[in-house]
Amino acid sequence: FFRVDGICEAFNMVQRLTFRRRCTYNTKSNQQRISKTPGGRLVYLHKKKAGSIPKCGDCKEKLHGITPARPKQLMSMSKRQKHVTRTYGGSRCHKCVRSRIVRAFLIEEQKIVVKVLKAQQAAQKS
Asked: How many of the other CB atoms lie within 10 Å of CB of 75?
């Protein structure tokens, strides 16, 4: 206890915390949280980096139905957690896949139309 202007206040000592690893800089890989042990001590627990949600390669939109994870975790995860059962499953979103299919179909249709027009012109000449 100490006295300031006639008011008695309690002064609690704050427990000092030390890093548990060698890195002392506040970097992305050295983030930590404070945890109280069963013995009442305060210690740092190092946080793991959060996994990012995969994004569509065309429109950069987040892909639905895919578990966000770090690369090392992705290696041990099963395939059903890393993609959706569709063409371009874990790589492109449904909108981009649809537009690709429609585009391919229209290109094929255009080729057929060109062939028919050439055949008609050849028939007219002869």
From this structure: 9
CA–CA distance, 62 with 52 (Å, rounded to integer): 10
Angle of CA points 76, 83, 52, to nearest 5°: 70
Contact by Cβ (8 Å): 67, 77: yes
Q: What confidence tens digit (pLDDT) does each residue in 14-68 have? A: 889 999 999 999 999 999 999 999 999 999 999 999 999 999 999 999 999 999 9
* Per-residue tokens: 31: 């983030």
CA pair distance 55, 81, nearest whole angstrom: 15
CB 117 within 8 A of CB 124: no
Whether the predicted model's global pTM rises above the 0.85 cut:
no
